[in-house]
Amino acid sequence: MSITAIDPRSALVVIDLQQGIVANPAAHAVTDIVARAAELAAAFRAKGLPVVLVNVAGGAPGRAEQTFRLDNLPAGWTELVPELGRQPSDITVTKHTWGAFTGTGLEATLRKLNITQIVLAGIATSIGVESTARFASELGLNVALAIDAMTDRSPQAHEHSVTRIFPRLGETGTTREIIALLESGAG
Predict the structure, then answer these.
(1) Helix or strand or coil: residue 139?
(2) Which segments of the protein form a coiled coil according to its record (predicted)?
(3) List of domains in the chain
């Protein structure tokens, strides 16, 4: 469903826009993704709404056929990109699994703030963003996905998430559409 509303108690959640991730190849220009996420962050801050900046600094335990090891990361790998304009009021979350909820305290933080909706952006569409959206939906939060403020390593994986999965989890829209709804108070 196309984006129809931004709840008055919404939070922006930006997934893995950090030095070590944005340096990798992606389906869409990472500079554009970061710029749009920064626009969203500025708009949420201007409305006094929470901005959650998430980074990844580990991996879930267990065996898998394909694993991406996060041992011995180079210096600065987990640092959020400066373009996000991190503010003291921002909530920061470091995750060790694909999604931003498991083992991070994010759910409790959002509940304490009476958040009813999250707007998601970041990398990777089919991994961190989708996992976070699935969990948020299961928690009963309204989910909005800024589809032009996210990307994936694989164009096919990105497209699958955006066209097949996200419409089942929430509403999708562009950065401009989300900001317009936020500024108009349409909720």
Answers:
(1) coil
(2) none
(3) 10-58+80-184 (3.40.50.850)
